[in-house]
Amino acid sequence: MNLATFNTLSPAAAQAAIAHCVAIPHWQLALVSARPFFSAAALIAEADRLARNWDAADLRQALTAHPRIGERASGAEKEAVLSRQEQAAMGSADAPLKQAMQEGNQAYEARFGRVFLIRAKGRSGEEMLSALQRRLGQDPQTEERETLEQLREITLLRLKESLT
Ligand code: 2AL
């Protein structure tokens, strides 16, 4: 999608065109309402600004669209395809790393009550595992902030990639 297209789509079509970036409808709607954008940089800047207001409820909603690290998202819908691409490094991880990630995910969910989320693109399996182990030791408030930051990074990467 190019910027001119995003600027001129109907509100519903524009929302549908960015829905795969993050499953937070009020963020999608606010971005659509802020059109027209005069540059891709202005669009990204507004998306970023809006993402910095997210809270715990937004995070819960967004996580419904993110599979665990190491669990291949199934399906052909856009989110699943993107998730598989983002997590490509886990595909080539060896069995001990996959096992450690699975155990780490379980420990994380027991401690924080939600799925471990990390911007996977650009990170190796080892890097994600070591981030998981570090984050397991954080207090809940710090961890929530870091998770929201990771969600913002994933969202902006997806948005940038949808702009041609
Ligand atoms: C994901 C995902 O699907 N893409 C990404 O960057 N991170 N999932 C996750 N649990 O962190």
Annotate the secondary structure layout.
Layout: H1 3-8, H2 11-18, H3 25-33, H4 40-51, H5 56-63, H6 78-86, H7 88-91, H8 95-112, H9 125-136, H10 140-162
Helix pairs in contact: 2-3, 4-10, 8-9
Bound molecules: 1-(2,5-dioxo-2,5-dihydro-1H-imidazol-4-yl)urea.
1-(2,5-dioxo-2,5-dihydro-1H-imidazol-4-yl)urea (2AL) is lined by residues 66-69, 83, 86-87, 115-121, 154.
Task: Jot down its keywords.
10 helices; binds 1-(2,5-dioxo-2,5-dihydro-1H-imidazol-4-yl)urea; single chain; mainly alpha; UraD-like; globular; 164 residues
Strand content: under 5%
Shape: globular
Number of helical segments? Answer: 10
CATH homologous superfamily classification: Oxo-4-hydroxy-4-carboxy-5-ureidoimidazoline decarboxylase
CATH architectural arrangement:
Orthogonal Bundle
Distance between the termini: 6 Å
Secondary structure tally: strands? 0
Helix-strand category: mainly alpha
